[in-house]
Design brief:
- With 105 residues, the protein is an all-alpha fold.
- Helix content is 71%, strand content 0%.
- The protein contains 5 helices and no strands.
- α1 packs across α2 (59-68).
- The longest helix has 40 residues, at 18-57.
- The chain is rod-shaped.
Length: 105
């Protein structure tokens, strides 16, 4: 047989696996989701810092929070008074309650 009778058949490369195609197309979506979660977490951290700082510096703000959202001061989520006492500062809860009771009378 001569070389002219042997023809090479060209086959296209096998198609890419579906998982590879999907992972490549999901990358931009995954990046957007990651960025969104990161931004939400940063906003939460800065919001918690702002809230804690405002409560730590203003007794009137703590009073407003105790009326509208009492769980923030003593509830299971934020525990403002517990965190202050844990840091070694005692008596703020009692000072707040004294002032608020005297304002009622």
């Amino acid at each position: 047989m001569s070389s002219s009778t042997h023809r090479k058949i060209f086959l296209p490369p096998p198609s890419l696996p579906l998982s590879y195609v999907m992972s490549r197309s999901m990358d931009p979506l995954a990046k957007k989701i990651f960025k969104g979660v990161l931004v939400a977490e940063l906003m939460g951290i800065f919001g918690a810092y702002f809230l804690f700082n405002k409560m730590n510096t203003s007794q009137d703000f703590r009073h407003t929070m105790s009326k509208k959202f009492p769980f923030i001061l003593e509830g299971m989520f934020f525990l403002y008074y517990k965190s202050i006492e844990h840091s070694g500062t005692y008596g703020i809860r009692e000072q707040d309650q004294e002032k608020w009771l005297s304002n009622k009378n």
